[in-house]
Amino acid sequence: MLFCYIHNFIIFIAVFTSLMTRTITDQLFVGDKEDAINAVDKFDIIISLSHPPDESTKHYLIPDGPHRYDIFEKAVDCVINNLQKNKSVFVHCQAGISRSVSVCIAAHITYYNSNYENSYDICSHKTYHPSDELINSVKKYISH
To answer: Which of 112, 122, 117 is nearest to 135 (CA)?
Structure first.
């Protein structure tokens, strides 16, 4: 019986935390596909890194792992361009853990003139860590 309660509590926590858009700054937000469903009326720009585009999103398909750098670069540029226009920007991928976080790290470093460590801490979470390939793209982006 105790196992059932613990199991249900763990499921509740997992569902609850996945439904929480994370605020990075007053203009920049990151989340997952579930957050994106509710984001349409809340943000000026929605950038999807994993789902087919619709009329309410800008779409940049970036796999979690090996990916094309030029698409990563375009996604980060889109975030920065919209931040410069004082737009609220919501970036999401499937889980809101790796792709969206890495794009936000690169944009945060560039737009807010931050350093890698600070931006990583601000954009990521204790349990959210971008893949090595995406971190390499972040480092490549900020080096140019």
So the answer is: 117
CA distance 130 to 120: 10
pTM of the entire predicted model: 0.82
Q: What is the pLDDT of residues 43-89, one digit of tens each?
A: 999 999 887 666 668 889 898 889 999 999 999 999 999 999 999 99
The H-or-E segment that residue 91 falls in is strand 89-92
Backbone angles phi, psi at 90, to 5 degrees: -110, 120
Domain limits at 131? Answer: 2-143
SS3 122: helix
Look up the CATH number of the domain holding residue 68: 3.90.190.10
Which tens digits make up the pLDDT trace of 30-39? 988 888 887 7
Is residue 100 within 8 A of residue 49, CB to CB? The reply is: yes
Question: With contact defined as beta carbons under 8 Å apart, do 89 and 77 qualify?
Answer: no
